[in-house]
Amino acid sequence: MSVNLPPFQALLEEHRSDVYRFLVATAGSAEADDAFQETWIAALRGYPKLGRADNLRAWLFRIAQNKSIDAHRARGRRPVPVAAVPERPSPSAEDSPELWARLRALPAKQRTAVFCRSVLGMPYEELAVLLESSEDAARRNVHEGLKRLREELTDD
User: Fold this and answer.
1) Which residues contact 19 (CB under 8 A, 6 or more apart)?
2) Which of 68, 37, 50, 60 is nearest to 5 (CA)?
3) Residue 49 contacts by C-beta under 8 Å, 6 or more apart in sequence?
4) Which pTM does this prediction carry?
5) How many CA atoms lie within 13 A of 100 on its CB side?
6) 4-8 — which CB contacts under 8 Å span 24+ positions?
7) CA dist., res. 128 & res. 40, Å (int)
8) DSSP single-letter state for residue 86
9) pLDDT tens digits in sequence order for the chain, 156 residues long
10) Three-state SS for 127?
């Protein structure tokens, strides 16, 4: 069965900036560049084997979400020579570095759901594909993530 895929370069050009913004928000500015490269390498490797081309954007964000999770796991395994390493805010997070730090602290599905819905305006249908869940579950992840962010920011 042959799938009609656009050229990979066209896919890259169309989604590059949103994928990068997602990774800065979810993995952190220090990890975003590496996660971005790993996302596109993984996408390039898997692209010829795709069985469907109906939602390539969600497929890319699923890969990016996995790379973001990998970055969080790797960060936890790295030795840190000081008690706490201050995180540099990304250029897009200068207005509210605390908000971005709290977003990165959310559970993976909530972090992805809140960013994709709130920042990228991703429809729930597409978000459900990305999260490999139902639309109701995608809505619930956005709701719970935003609720937790509101609670944490108003408690301070």
Assistant:
1) 36, 39, 40, 60, 61, 64
2) 50
3) none
4) 0.58
5) 22
6) 4/53, 5/47, 5/50, 5/53, 5/56, 6/53, 6/56, 8/43, 8/44, 8/47
7) 21
8) P
9) 567 889 999 999 999 999 999 999 999 898 999 999 999 999 999 999 988 888 899 999 999 999 999 998 887 776 767 666 556 544 444 467 888 888 888 998 999 999 999 888 999 999 999 999 999 999 999 999 999 988 888 876
10) helix
Summarize the chain as % helix, strand, coil (round to 5). 75, 0, 25
d(CA 65, CA 126): 14
Q: Which two tokens stand for residue 54?
A: 């109906």
Q: What is the token pair recorded at 2?
A: 């042959």
Going from the C-alpha of 122 to that of each of 31, 65, 139, the distances in angstroms are 23, 14, 11
